[in-house]
Write a structure and sequence with these properties.
346 residues; alpha/beta; 14 helices; 2 domains; globular; single chain; Rossmann fold; binds S-adenosylmethionine
Length: 346
């Protein structure tokens, strides 16, 4: 890779190889990609990325690398591509050769997947924090009807899990709150829905967003189990709509027409530049019914470390209340409650 953008992507690849979560599955593929990217002359990787950058000029390097891994895995799972590219026991030079061949032969298909889809990884334990925070907020404000929209919902897991107690009871013990967890309270949900970028992510795509490892197999098993529990609890039929959050007029319309007073947005906005992120947040704040709450969860250190932070915006105020920090974005580990929680549930 010789271009400036190629150099920047190579640096991002090196950073991601050091990421703690990489050990759970993607590191082997990223190592192979670094091998392909290290070639002197132009490679199939250069050609593929040039097309992706043309179609998605603002994609970050980290997202492009993640998406390429997902596209390769999707192809491997569905069309029988070379699974050795994910196998640490296969010598690195062999993996690099296989990957370079795959990128050359399947460039059109991989480019299409990367142009049309996003990383739609969804975690079965992420709803634990919104469940308790929104429950505490509704209780403190005496809110009798919550109308909730999950923004960037992927397959709509979070909206289906809220208030489903068997799911909460299974996962909550693995998340330790400091100094203490707010009590579980049923959220008085009158209406709940989710939106995501068109085309709406499928379960197959979300499967490919999980890294190739036992760790991610278990996480995906938790997703499937949660969906089953939602069916049993009669909470499966949640409206999911295609909507691009960057189309702020459509976003405002969707929120006002459904009289939404609580919005959640987990692991979505960190992908965008600060001004874009701000525009989406301001639009939501201007469109929520009062008393309104927007809850945002994002990785705390870009994608460099494992934790995430939770911020809330209340009653249209643009002041971000720092509610909590979670040690692991998959919501296993520790939650440290921050002063914003007191304001919210005060
Ligand atoms: C990493 S997933 C997180 C899914 C889910 N919120 C969770 O935390 O488990 C990010 C999701 O945001 C969606 N997304 C990203 N940009 C979007 C946009 N402009 N409009 C709507 N959805 C978007 C992606 O399609 C993807 O499904």
């Amino acid at each position: 890779m010789t271009s400036t953008r190629g150099e920047s992507l190579r640096a991002a690849l090196t950073d991601m190889l050091r990421h703690q979560q990489g050990n759970h599955g993607w590191a082997v593929l990223h190592e192979g990609l670094a091998g392909v990217a290290a070639a002197d002359g132009p490679t199939a990787l250069d050609a593929l990325l040039a097309e992706v950058w043309l179609k998605r000029p603002y994609i970050t390097d980290a997202h492009a690398i993640t998406l390429l891994g997902i596209a390769v895995q999707h192809h491997t799972l569905h069309d029988g591509g070379p699974s050795e590219v994910f196998d640490a026991k296969t010598p690195l030079p062999v993996r690099v050769r296989l990957l370079a061949g795959l990128l050359a032969e399947r460039r059109a298909e991989l480019t299409r997947l990367m142009a049309e889809h996003s990383n739609s990884y969804t975690g079965a334990r992420r709803f634990l924090v919104p469940q308790l925070v929104i429950g505490a907020f509704a209780q403190a404000r005496g809110i009798e009807r919550v109308r909730l929209m999950d923004l960037g919902t992927s397959i709509g897991l979070l909206p289906r899990q809220l208030n489903v107690e068997p799911v909460f009871d299974r996962f909550a013990p693995d998340l330790h709150w400091h100094p203490a967890a707010p009590p579980f309270r049923r959220i008085p949900l009158e209406y709940v829905c989710g939106v995501d970028r068109p085309p709406l992510p499928t379960l197959e795509w979300v499967r490919a967003c999980h890294g190739p490892s036992d760790y991610y197999e278990r996480r995906f098993g938790e997703v499937l189990w949660s969906l089953d529990q939602a069916k049993t609890a009669g909470r499966y039929d949640v409206p999911l709509r295609p909507l691009d959050l960057l189309d702020v007029r459509a976003l405002a319309d969707a929120l006002t027409s459904a009289r939404i007073n609580v919005a959640t947005c987990t692991f979505v906005l960190y992908q965008y530049a600060e001004d874009v992120r701000r525009r989406v947040i301001d639009t939501v704040l201007g469109a929520l019914d009062r008393p309104g709450l927007l809850l945002v969860m994002d990785p705390s250190h870009g994608l460099a470390r494992m934790g995430c932070s939770v911020h809330a915006y209340v009653d249209g105020s643009t002041e971000a209340l720092h509610v909590a920090d979670v040690s692991d974005a998959h919501c296993m580990g520790d939650v440290t409650v921050r002063p914003g929680m007191g304001v919210l549930a005060g």
